[in-house]
Amino acid sequence: MLGMSANSVSYNEQGSVESGVDAAQENSSIPGSFSSDLKEMLESNKESLKLEAMKRIVGLIAKGKNASELFPAVVKNVASKNIELKKLVYVYLVRYAEEQQDLALLSISTFQRALKDPNQLIRASALRVLSSIRVPIIVPIMMLAIKEAATDLSPYVRKTAAHAIQKLYSLDPDQKEHLIEVIEKLLKDKSTLVAGSVVMAFEEVCPDRIDLIHKNYRKLCNLLVDVEEWGQVVIIHMLTRYARTQFVSPWREDAMFDENNEKAFYDSEEERKVEQTKPYIMDPDHRLLLRNTKPLLQSRNTAVVMAVSQLYWHLAPKHELSIITKSLVRLLRSHREVQYVVLQNIATMSIQRKGMFEPFMKSFYVRSTDATHIKTLKLEILTNLANEANISTILREFQTYVKSQDKAFAAATIQAIGRCATNISEVTDTCLNGLVLLLSNRDETVVAESVVVIKKLLQTQPSQHSDIIKHMAKLFDNITVPMARASILWLMGEYCEHVPKIAPDVLRKMAKTFTNEEDIVKLQIVNLAAKLYLTNSKQTKLLTQYILNLGKYDQNYDIRDRTRFIRQLIVPNEKSGALSKYARRILMAPKPAPVLQSAFKDRDRFQLGTLSHTLNSQASGYLELSDWPAVAPDQSVRNVEVVKEAGAPALRKSKTAKSNEKFYSDSEEEEEEEEEGSSSEGSSSSSSEESVSESESEENSDDSNKSSSSQSEKSSSESDSEKKKKTLKNKKLQQQKPDILIITYLPPQIMQKTLLLIIMTKYILIHIVLSISTQFFVNCMCSLLHLCVFLACQFDVVSWHVHVSLQASSPVFVPETSHELLHRMTGKGLSAQYRFTRQPCIYGNSMVSLQLTLSNSSDQALENIHISEKSSTGQNIHRFNAIERLEPQASVTVSMGVDFNDSTQAANFQLCTKEDEFSVSIQPAVGELLLPITMSEADFTKEQGKLMGMNESSATITMTPENVSSQSVNRKVVSVANIGVIPSSQENIYRFAGKTVSSGSLVLVSVALKDPDAVITINTEKTVIGSMLLRQFKTALTNSCP
Amino acid sequence: MPNHPVPVPSSVLAALKNKTIHLSAAKMIHSLFLVNASGDIFLEKHWKSVVSRSVCDYFFEALERATEPENVPPVIPTPHHYLINVLRHRIYFVAVIQSEVPPLFVIEFLHRVVDTFQDYFGVCTEAAIKDNVVVVYELLEEMLDNGFPLATESNILKELIKPPTILRTVVNTITGSTNVGEQLPTGQLSVVPWRRTGVKYTNNEAYFDVIEEIDAIIDKSGSTITAEIQGVIDACVKLTGMPDLTLSFMNPRLLDDVSFHPCVRFKRWEAERILSFIPPDGNFRLLSYHVSSQNLVAIPVYVKHNISFREGSSQGRFELTLGPKQTMGKAVESVLVSSQLPRGVLNANLNPSQGTYTFDPVTKLLSWDVGKINPQKLPSLKGSMSLQAGASKPDENPTINIQFKIQQLAISGLKVNRLDMYGEKYKPFKGIKYMTKAGKFQVRT
């Protein structure tokens, strides 16, 4: 454990600035006695003591104390059965693994084992922790785990895989290419669970690979409403960037940045359209994005609302923008921090498009309780919104603000008044008068700010305002703020001709106080002196020389420079010559009036809603929004080939029509990809089996060479268990079907120990690639593997224990076939098909979930399609909500639930339209009355033992040769009945488990192959169901065609 | 341990280290620090590599510059990181970000964290967080994975981690059992992720509170400058199984702008103006809405005030009278008046006709707890203020903030028509309550 302290310093630093302090602080570790207490508690046999110790350790971590020395004691508990203890160990492990890399490796095997657990949540949790351990050595293991998880049947595990991609990428950017492959695969995923996470990974790893999005674009648009809210934000931002590269601009040239024409633009949209020479037609995909994001403006999540708003801002035609206004204004009711960000974005928007927010002007009125930065932002927006029509209201409001107790805010208001005055010429005089009144305000900051603003205003029309300049000269003595004094002096000098009597007097006063003034004031005194010298040298010649002499010896070199320059310029002597002739023209040149602009003027260079926009500087990792392409790139790249499914030709069409209407992500999509997953799973596992046979033979040969030496190397304490292990080893070798073992570049000592380790710990996967083979590393690995071996023995017994006895799992296989409910001939144009979704029904626990596709093949619209209230057979039916209107040739899919009461008796009911009633019936296949469950093999055998005798039915059949493989048996069985596959340790016995939907009785199925015969056994309390199932399995497994 | 690992030479370490450092700028939330009112970090949590707490120095600088706690800018850039903070319950939640991320994403998440703490511990104070540090850590661990939000639905979290109750704490200490749910979070997998599965109650009940807040600014002369109504419908639903509820309004047109809990079916609302949803279990906010600003907002109270300072005198006059107005016959209750008096005011000597008042000479905050307004005998607060001797009269007049409640009234006139339940057979007990409150209700003087 020697190398660790060095490790801890080198791994936890991020920026060099912080590292020094960091090390000092982190080392404020816990006192030794306390830590040994904790160690003792962790090593005790009592679960409660261990838990208590872990709780204390987490408390230490939370306080920022260093608890890394407890690592070995903690990591031993990684496989604890106590869930809370285990979770706390994870917290610890993830926190310190980076600093204690070698020891962290000890925990890896536990996670690898859990990655194969039949329970999806355990697989996911294992992947989550495994990928959070930031130890570079396990990169290959992580990579394999991610690849595997990306093809998992459970969408939740695939979601976790997407998260793990980012973690691996930040650990080792060299894996980029492999990770992109995984991302590409996951982008195709149709589950709403996965979508947000994989797009996040995409943004992280390869945001420039826009080409990966094409085929998934429409799917992402359609899934968007059903994705969880955080994922929505990420997807919307990504799609905004995508759309800017793929579609042409919906803004006509004149519409953008054209404030003046805006009014006309809003009023006469229709006319403008006619005027246009080349009509713009929006790409339907562009429209799809706008349409599908719009409902999200109603989200409760402010980040989602902001994301949609910025999408509309950057992508929507300008006349459609107004829909985002209300939602943005609504966000202003939220927390202070939310207001801050939203107001900043509104400020940027309101510069370009006043019209959007003008009706909501009053929402930006300042309240005395607002924080200062909120007040200033509101002020900014009000100023942006000011126009001839509303300026009087705004100015009245501003008058209240000027009186605010918050002086910083009052000063900002004065600036705002100044801006209004320059922008709207009608009110310039009013504003100026108001500001002059403020000059007598008691507060210094207010007066100073007024002076500065007045100075700017006067520059626009000085001749009319000599009164104001005189007034300011009178106030001069009372003003102490340097900026204000400097401003008045500048005004005096610039317009000295308007105040010929007062200016020299002011200069006289200034000559007296020159040495005590601030630098900016001194500079203006020199300026004033020079200007007066040129216009009125009779009165001011001596004063000027006096001031120039003072300036010559000033401490500040700027002032000395300026003095020297002015002297040369205005006092004619032989050296200056020609230049002094132009002195007057140089100094008294008419100066353009300053333009008062919004501070948000140039913020629109950043995408709205981003961190960069908020900071007004580019944050690291900011992705520039590209300009619209001049010509639209190929649209067909987004087309997706439609796979025709047998038996359900109408389904496709109805689905696309429906996808916008649904709100809950319905099961259909999930099922589809489950099926997809399973088929790809099939192919991948077969290929891996091949590689296994190779590696296994390798392993055997290696093993036989090395086993003797390895055994002799082992410590004596282990020797007594030697024999046992050897038998164990042989057994394991037989079982280790899916193991993949890739060891390259490993020195022999390590190799042999690794092999041993694998055998002993049931290692599912070990993949260690080492390119460095320095001597020390070999030593390291040796001792490490020793440790592993030792600990693995202890860990071997423990496993993840969870209560899964009757837990429903997702269906393994969902048939696509639909059955006819009502033919269009009998239904007078209305036809109906149903299929079993095999999902748990959301309407009731005892119901079977059904999906009904209703199509109208007549040429008239059908109205009020519903299921009549009276049911003839007494089953409990959850009816779908009445369909008000079904257009000709349209179809709609609805879901319903039927409680078949665990019998195959058909459910008869009346399907009604406005005019007609049709009697229909649904006859369920016995396999559809079940739901799959997961359980361990041991539980299965136990339960099977309880259901013997009467409850068991079995049959022997002769298998057709093509059915003998494990895949085909599995497939046949799960296609007949909705049951789950139980992992089996025996090669020729397949086990399946399910429960009946209504009563929840267990149904256990096992198929034992005895070439060429097979014995099917079904154990269930529901003997009728059992015998019916048996008959169906017999037909399925003896039938040769798939 | 049979053997000690040999120390790793520095060259290899450097190679590994470089790898960690030039790692891509990982997105989303890197670390979280909780800072109390006195500027101490009392909790830290890292989702990726550890970021030293010294990064908070930039935050403390901003805190020092800010005149009020609320004035700390929510987003603070530092050389290597960005700090995004929210202030709730006098605790700063400071998130450390490394690269571009929508700031609202982080802010919204931090507020969810606070809401969750409040939900779990009843209050969100430093003491509560410190007492429950393990639960806090477990929650934070579930809420974010690698800095990306994972489970933020309260229903899912409660399935994973049970909220501490006094009883459970006692039982846990005796039996050594745990807070962590034995079950796995199946909710995360379902199509209705906000609802727990297998919910059972003996008394099935659903309560809905329609709460409206009036935001208004009233000017000196008593005329309304701006007024709007923001409403929410908070629900407490304890129903067995998977109930499917619909809620309809008598006058849905009133609702101008709405935002929904994810459970509400948006299309149904668009088409029929009916709220149709499978509710989460327990307390949740179903809907927030804005009442269209075209409608005139009834202002339920009026204020007569006379606050004046005379030039040259060290005394000021203070008179305030409250009265009801447009209350639809309902009583105005829990009235609380507060005002930030000018800095020059040293003390106030006032006489309330009812209730009690306090004046804090340090913060200059005057607050008057009025209670219920009796229309026959209007409450008033009269007296004098003493000013700093020699100081000139303050040129600003204070703003008066008013809080009040009116029971059994939704000031906009919104009325729930009916609540129906489908999907389950039992008959639930249903209740609707209305209330009007003052939001940001200010009177300028």
Categorize the overall geometry of chain B: globular
The CATH class assignment of the largest domain in chain B is: Alpha Beta
CA(first)-CA(last) distance of chain B: 78 Å
Q: What form of chain A results from the Cα inertia axes?
A: elongated
- Determine the strand fraction of chain B and express it as a percent band: 35-45%
What characterizes the major β-sheet of chain A?
A: 7 strands, antiparallel
Structural class of chain B: alpha+beta
Tell me what you see in this structure:
With 1042 residues, chain A is α+β, with helices and mostly antiparallel strands. Chain A contains 43 helices and 18 strands. Chain A is elongated and about 130 Å long. The two termini of chain A are 60 Å apart. Residues 1-27, 254-276, 644-747, 755-778 and 786-806 of chain A have low confidence and may be disordered. Chain B is of the alpha+beta class and 445 residues long. Chain B has three domains: 10-189, 2-Layer Sandwich (Beta-Lactamase), CATH 3.30.450; 205-297 and 409-444, Mu homology domain, subdomain B (Immunoglobulin-like, Sandwich); 301-407, Mu homology domain, subdomain B (Immunoglobulin-like), CATH 2.60.40. Chain B is built from eight helices and 23 strands. In chain B, a hairpin with a 5-residue loop joins strand 1 (29-35) and strand 2. The longest helix of chain B has 19 residues, at 103-121. The termini of chain B are far apart. Mean pLDDT of chain B is 84; it is low at 5-25. At the A-B interface, helix 1, helix 2, helix 4, helix 6 and helix 9 of A face helix 1, strand 2, strand 4, helix 3 and helix 5 of B.
